[in-house]
Structure formats: C-alpha cells, structure tokens
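Form 7-S
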Amino acid sequence: MNPSDPGAPENGWASPAPRPNPFEPPPAGSYTGPSAQRPYAPPTSSEAIGAIVCGVMAWSCFPLGILAIWLGFRARRAVRESQGQLAGEQLALAGMIVGGIFGGLWLLFWLAYAAFAVFAIGFHGFK
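Output:
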C-alpha cells in the first residue's frame, strides 16, 4: 500500500473490512425458499382432538372414557381413509389409550362400590 494514496489511513495500516449494518434487514427470500416448496401440513382431525380431550377429561366422568374410545376409533379410520388429507392418528390413539385407562378405573370403582353395597346390605340382615 502506498502511503501517498489518498484513501490510505495515516498510520500506513490497511483499514479493516467494512462490517454489515446490524439494523439492515436480510435480503428478501434469504430465510425461506419459495412458498411453493414449503411442505404441506394436513389439518388434524377434529374427532382426534375430541378423543384426546374426552380421554383426559375421563378422569372426572365415567362415560367420557367410552366416548374417547369411540371418537378415537372413528378418527383413526377417517385419517387412514383420507390418504394424507387428514392428520392426527397418533392423537386419536393417545385419546383411546387414556380414555380406556380412566374408563377402566372408573368401571373398577363402580364395581367395587356395587360389591360394597351388596356386602353392606347382606350384613344388615344378620342383626
């Protein structure tokens, strides 16, 4: 570098490379490609969403467990028959499993309650 050069710094050292402006936005299209290349996410089946909601809420109400199993069965069949137009098969399966667990626990509770009632009534006659 020639010190007599008008663009040269006074101390004779080369100036550092210019830094990009941190407040300048990136060029258009630098983050994502064209929208036609984005993968399509199919909508989730509303019955699958209903199955998981009923399955979770089945802890408080016995019939919701049965409803969760029924909705999950319908949702899984609809997702398979839609040929990729619907999603949510795993969500429906989760709703069926959770609803089945809570429904089974409620069924055991009511059977134990009925057995206790029969047992209590049976001992009432032995006064």
